[in-house]
């Protein structure tokens, strides 16, 4: 089944340098393949955008967490606020800053997406950090708000790219990071299509080949 609707959006959530710290967020992290999978998705998606990005049916949006706490590694004044190298925005790719878990709260993301899809059903893809916090919350709200549904009632599709996200073990005595990741990804099946990177890339293959 193709995951490539006439109009799509890729939301890259909080792939910031602060998350490179080995222990600040927890004693261990899930999904060692996160970086390579996310890189593959971002690079491939950019190939779908041809010509003038402002008129493309495919749109990439970068979300950055801007903590209100000056002691947070995600505060704007911290080096950790910067995007990780592989996820740095290019050209005129849109960057949206948030200060809570959901990228829809206190931002214009909903407005941007509704303007992009223009009332037609589409597909939006989500990846980033972390599985159980900001990516999960943003995915749930995208579904609840029906931002990629058609005005005629046709359902769009929210796609959570499970292996292009990662989660942390919360404490030494807490649940394993992979378990945290897996349970949260499974819970999202009520709100989104939970897919793997390989499946998403395969669904884009025909269009990518036509642009080669």
TrEMBL record:
**Similarity annotation:** Belongs to the isochorismatase family.
Single GO molecular-function term? hydrolase activity
Domain Isochorismatase-like, chain residue ranges per copy: 8-172
The record's section on InterPro entries has: Isochorismatase-like_dom, Isochorismatase-like_hydrls, Isochorismatase-like_sf
Q: Which organism is it from?
A: Coleophoma cylindrospora
Return the protein name.
Answer: Isochorismatase-like domain-containing protein
SUPFAM superfamilies per the UniProt record, alphabetical: Isochorismatase-like hydrolases
Keyword set for this entry?
Hydrolase
């Amino acid at each position: 089944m193709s995951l490539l609707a006439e109009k799509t959006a890729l939301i890259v959530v909080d792939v910031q340098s602060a998350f490179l710290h080995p222990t600040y967020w927890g004693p261990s992290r899930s999904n060692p393949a996160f970086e390579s999978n996310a890189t593959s998705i971002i690079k491939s998606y950019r190939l779908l955008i041809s010509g003038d990005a402002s008129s493309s049916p495919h749109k990439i949006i970068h979300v950055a967490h801007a903590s209100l706490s000056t002691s947070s590694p995600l505060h704007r004044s911290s080096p950790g606020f910067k995007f990780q190298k592989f996820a740095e925005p290019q050209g005129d790719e849109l960057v949206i800053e948030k200060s809570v878990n959901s990228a829809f709260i206190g931002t214009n993301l909903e407005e941007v997406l509704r303007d992009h899809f223009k009332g037609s059903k589409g597909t939006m893809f989500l990846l980033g950090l972390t599985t159980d916090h900001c990516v999960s919350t943003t995915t749930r709200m995208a579904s609840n708000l029906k931002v990629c549904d058609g005005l005629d009632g046709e359902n769009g599709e929210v796609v959570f790219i499970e292996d292009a996200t990662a989660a942390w073990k919360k404490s030494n005595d807490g649940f394993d990071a992979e378990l945290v990741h897996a349970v949260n990804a499974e819970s999202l099946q009520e709100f989104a299509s939970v897919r793997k990177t390989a499946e998403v890339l395969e669904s884009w293959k025909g269009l990518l080949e036509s642009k080669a």
